[in-house]
Design brief:
The protein has 279 residues and is mainly β. The chain contains 3 helices and 18 strands. It has 4 domains: 56 residues, OB fold (Dihydrolipoamide Acetyltransferase, E2P), CATH 2.40.50.140; 61 residues, OB fold (Dihydrolipoamide Acetyltransferase, E2P); 59 residues, OB fold (Dihydrolipoamide Acetyltransferase, E2P) (Beta Barrel), CATH 2.40.50.140; 66 residues, Arc Repressor Mutant, subunit A. The strands form 4 sheets. A 5-stranded antiparallel sheet has the order 3-2-1-4-5, with no helix packed on it. Strands 8-7-6-9-10 form a 5-stranded antiparallel sheet, with no helix packed on it. A hairpin with a 6-residue loop joins β7 and β8. The longest helix is centred in the C-terminal third of the chain and has 14 residues.
Length: 279
């Protein structure tokens, strides 16, 4: 089966004037136009290609790498707005269409929007939607507390930042758990901090509790190494100063320093922390 909006590994069947015809093991075929044909090839070779409908609504294979594929979320730039809807730059010759009905807010030329790409069953073409929440479901969770997850920053709320979790669920990073600048569309690693009774997910950008000590200790250690083994920070330093240097809370910093101290990697003095010479 040749899947639209996805990468397909297909076999070169024959060489023709318009390009190479590629096929799967179910006798389905698609054209790879001449502009995408590799300099060297043999009939029977396999190629990984992206398949979609071209400007004339014909099924076509390309070797271009789109910024988004079917089922994904990505931050895309709006190239133009017409009476039909918006057209987004997704790294392909043909722009990605976003109908007006799929726009959470009216798109403008030059604006950047987080969208979901899906296959419209009526037209059989790929379209975008900035109404991303409707493609997320927290009824049946596939994650649990302390799981590491992939998150995409979605949109701000009054208490933090909404995120897309593993391309499936909606989560929230509370403002108090944000210790570095994040922007809509950022793709980050996170940890499920809490699963609420209504299946809402609290997400943290660092690990939780004792799981947080080692990664943060490594951050402190790297800063020490980058500053000739000395940092003028102590447990009396302000939370703002610690956040600025280490991008973590003061509580996490103290745990990290305690871990390094117990391992005799650092020495703690009144004027700061020192990296021990034997490390």
């Amino acid at each position: 089966m040749i899947n639209i909006g996805e990468y397909n590994t297909l076999t070169i069947l024959r060489d023709t004037d318009p390009g190479l015809f590629l096929g799967d093991n179910e006798d389905n075929e698609v054209l790879l136009p001449n502009r995408y044909v590799p300099q060297e090839f043999h009939i029977g070779d396999e190629l990984e290609v992206f398949v979609y409908l071209d400007n004339e609504e014909r099924l076509v294979a390309v070797t271009d790498k789109p910024y988004i594929k079917k089922g994904d979320f990505a931050l895309l730039r709006c190239n133009q707005v017409t009476k039909f809807g918006a057209f987004l730059d997704w790294g392909m010759v043909k722009e990605l269409f976003c109908p007006f009905k799929e726009q959470a807010f009216k798109m403008k030329k030059g604006g950047w929007y987080l969208v979901h790409c899906y296959l419209d069953e009526e037209s059989n073409r790929l379209v975008a939607s900035s109404k991303t929440n409707r493609f997320l479901d927290n009824k049946e969770l596939t994650v649990q507390k302390f799981d590491e997850v992939d998150v995409i920053v979605s949109h701000p709320s009054e208490i933090g930042m909404n995120v897309i979790v593993n391309k499936k669920h909606l989560g929230l990073i509370f403002t108090d758990d944000i210790f570095k600048d994040i922007s809509i569309g950022d793709k980050l690693k996170g940890i499920v901090k809490k699963v609420r009774h209504d299946n809402k997910l609290d997400i943290a950008l660092g690990q939780i509790g004792y799981r947080n000590i080692e990664p943060n200790a490594e951050v402190v250690l790297r800063e020490l190494e980058d500053n000739s083994g000395y940092l003028q920070v102590t447990d009396k330093s302000s939370p703002e100063e610690i956040k600025d240097i280490f991008q973590m809370s003061k509580k996490s910093f103290k745990k990290a320093v305690g871990s390094l101290y117990k391992q005799r990697i650092i020495t703690i003095k009144e004027d700061g922390i020192y990296l021990n010479k034997n490390n």
